[in-house]
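$ ./design --mode recover --in tokens.txt
reading tokens...
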């Protein structure tokens, strides 16, 4: 069962599309000062971490490892805002760039995918090797939220107590369900946007690594086409259905054994509320929902208790709780 949270959207942008659009706008202000650390993966690719360490932060103080969504990076607005706010609160903020994203551009031959929790595990081990006493909260948005939940379950199954808490915002926990939802006429605008960025990503990688095999994509490309032609052969899945099933956190969430919070909105164009209703949540996994908010929008009425970006206050409360 989920608990409803009160969210009052800003007038005139109450609908799913304007909320989603406003939430996806790039950050206007400069991001916080950070240094880049590179994590070498077993296959030779690298991940880039943007680390913002507050003044007077000690190695025993807490950290937050953040994962962006599809076609995002450490420059994604929600990550930038939270990194700046966490710095003021004395919490180290580490923004992870999935393969080839952000400051990791040109550092990875392979494209990341929605279930790549093993990459985040390598980053987590890298961080803990340097600061083993820092309690870490793992925070993921959208695709990053699915990866967060998948890793949280895998760590629990392996009895590895490496995280204090996990937080997932609008995670597409059933990838096939979300892919089908994106291909509907009313949501095709989102699919076209993401597919365009994925094409550009592949083109950039082929220019950086000329020996990579080029893939001829159809002009009217859908997500399932992209995954069937590119993701599946890159990572050795049987087919795109096998990829979606093995990468979806939905089937693993019941195994999570530590504190975890999940938030979604009922009008999310990428996620169906039914995706969360077909399994029993452990007592330590808390599911929250709002009536409105779109896909990581949550642009609300500014007040003393909540600001323009309502989601920031919710996430910070959960991190500091």
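writing sequence...
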């Amino acid at each position: 069962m989920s608990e409803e949270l009160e969210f009052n959207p800003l007038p005139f942008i109450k609908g799913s599309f304007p909320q989603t659009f406003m939430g996806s706008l790039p950050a206007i202000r400069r991001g916080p000062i950070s240094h880049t650390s590179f994590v070498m993966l077993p296959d030779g690719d690298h991940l880039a971490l943007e680390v913002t360490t507050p003044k007077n932060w000690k190695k025993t103080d807490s950290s937050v490892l953040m994962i962006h969504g599809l076609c995002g990076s450490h420059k994604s607005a929600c990550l930038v805002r939270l990194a700046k706010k966490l710095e003021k609160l004395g919490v180290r903020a580490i923004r992870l760039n999935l393969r080839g994203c952000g400051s990791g551009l040109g550092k990875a031959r392979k494209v990341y995918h929605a279930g790549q929790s093993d990459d985040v595990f390598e980053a987590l081990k890298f961080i803990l090797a340097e600061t083993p006493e820092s309690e870490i909260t793992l925070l993921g948005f959208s695709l990053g939220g699915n990866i967060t939940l998948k890793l949280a379950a895998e760590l629990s199954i392996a009895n590895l107590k490496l995280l204090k808490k996990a937080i997932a915002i609008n995670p597409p926990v059933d990838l096939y369900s979300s892919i089908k939802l994106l291909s509907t006429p009313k949501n095709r605008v989102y699919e076209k946007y993401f597919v365009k960025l994925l094409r550009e990503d592949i083109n950039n990688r082929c220019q950086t690594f000329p020996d990579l095999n080029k893939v001829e994509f159809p002009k009217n490309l859908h997500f399932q086409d992209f995954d069937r032609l590119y993701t599946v052969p890159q990572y050795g899945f049987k087919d795109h259905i096998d990829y979606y099933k093995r990468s979806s956190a939905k089937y693993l969430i019941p195994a999570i054994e530590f504190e975890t919070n999940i938030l979604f909105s009922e009008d999310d164009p990428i996620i169906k509320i039914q995706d969360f209703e077909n399994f029993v949540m452990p007592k330590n996994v808390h599911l929250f929902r709002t009536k409105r908010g779109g896909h990581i929008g949550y642009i609300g009425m500014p007040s003393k208790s909540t600001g323009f970006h309502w989601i920031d206050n919710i996430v910070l409360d959960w991190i500091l709780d």
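exit 0
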